[in-house]
Structure formats: structure tokens, C-alpha cells
Amino acid sequence: MAKRSPLAEKIDQVRGRIAAACAKAKRDPSEVTLIAVTKTAAPEQIREALQLGVGDLGESRVQVLQQRAAQVNEFFARKQAHGEEGLPAKLRWHMIGHLQRNKIKIILPIVSMVHSIDSLRLAEELDLQAAKAEKRLPVLMQVNASEESQKFGVAVGAAVHLAEQIDSMPNLQIMGLMTMAELDASEKAIRQTFARTREVFEEMKWHKIGGGNLRHLSMGMSNDFELAIQEGATMVRIGTLLFGGKVADEEMAEE
């Protein structure tokens, strides 16, 4: 039997931990999507991850996303055309970093979802550019539930109102929320951040914002994804556990 690669082992371990966290929370593992954060990944690691069935890739830097998507999408299309086994049915890129309005045109043809809507001005510009591209773009609103001054994201108290405004935009489809817990916080503080985000999500549902499409909570990274799953995460953003580097590299930095 052929020896498995280090990345294959790591992906298996992460999937196992996701399944265990789901079991603890009495949830189905199919409810949680693993997004492989490519910030510290070498190009060959991204290609291998695809061949191991990981179809959701997250990137926080616009220029890098543009370069990588061009190469990786071409590789995926070629392998798919040859009927290679093990590939995911689809390849989806997620913009998980802070997005500047002047970079929107670059990412629109590439991404399946933007996780980091954090202001009305950004949402309006995204809606305008999506209309020009004749595209209805799935988006998540970023909530600063940990209340850290250096973090991007909408304040918890303003979140539902902004979500209502986004929901009225014809070329954006609000699908849920994204948040990050404080890196070195206690388990109690981390859980509180995720629980608070879940409360905003439930309030949005009560107001019928997003309708039946409101179903995603993008929460949890390499150091805290199990807690996030227990608090309701449907998407976890994992980079360090798969590709190395620091957990901070999974955070939302647009350089």
C-alpha cells in the first residue's frame, strides 16, 4: 500500500476532528464545510488538497487570490476533463479577508462567496459591481463579536440593521455571518464570541432577513474550530493545521 502524504494525513485528522466536534454537538458532519485557507500553502499543496477532495479554498489577499485562482482553476479543469478520481465536484474560492472597494472588480469573476462585508459602503459598491457583471453574489457579513478595536467587522448592535440593508440589494444574496474569536482568549471568551454571533444570526432569521438562504456561520480557525462547531459553525477556515504557519495567518488581513 502506497504511503500517504503528510497533507493527506493532516486533512484526515482535521476531518476527524470536525466529525468528533459534530458528534459532541449532536450535529451531522455534512453540515460543516472545511475551507482550506491557502495563505501559507505552496502551489503544489493547493493542487494536492484538491486531489484529496477539498473543494473550498479561502484566501485573504486579493492579488494572491487572483494569481492562485488562475493557476489552480486551470489545473482543476484539466484534471476534471481527464476524469481524475478523488476531485471535488466543484472548486469554490472564498474571499475571507478585508476587502477594499477598489479591489472588487478583481475578485468578482473568481469568488463564489465573500465572507467579509463589514460596511454599508462596501456592500453598496459590491452590489453595483455585481450588477455590472450580471452576477448575484453570495455574501456573509463580518461581525466583530469579540469587540477588539483592531478587528474589522460590524458592531453587534448594528449588525441586524446592516443585514436588512444588504438584504434589500438585488445583486447580493446574504447567506449568514462570519466572525473571529480573539486569538489568545480563554475558552469561555471564545465560546462567548461564537455564541453572540449565533444570537445575531437567530435574530436575523426572526426578522426573515435572507429568507431560506440564511444558513451559514463562518466561524472557527485552526485553534478554535471545535468550539465554533459546538456553537453552530457551518464553515470552518483552516490553514495552519493543514499547511503550517501561524494561526494568525488565517485571520483577515488584506495587505
Helix content: 40-55%
H-E string: HEHEHEHEHEHEHEHEH
* Relative strand content: 5-15%
Shape: globular
Structural class: alpha/beta
Tally of alpha and pi helices: 9
Question: Tally of extended strands?
Answer: 8
Stretches where pLDDT is under 50 for at least 5 consecutive residues are none
Radius of gyration: 18 Å
How far apart the termini lie comes to 44 Å
What is the topology, as strand order, of the major beta sheet? 7-6-5-4-3-2-1-8
Assembly context of the chains: single chain
Mean pLDDT: 94
How can the largest sheet be summarized?
Answer: 8 strands, parallel
Give a quick precis of the structure.
By secondary structure, the chain is an alpha/beta fold. It is built from 9 helices and 8 strands.
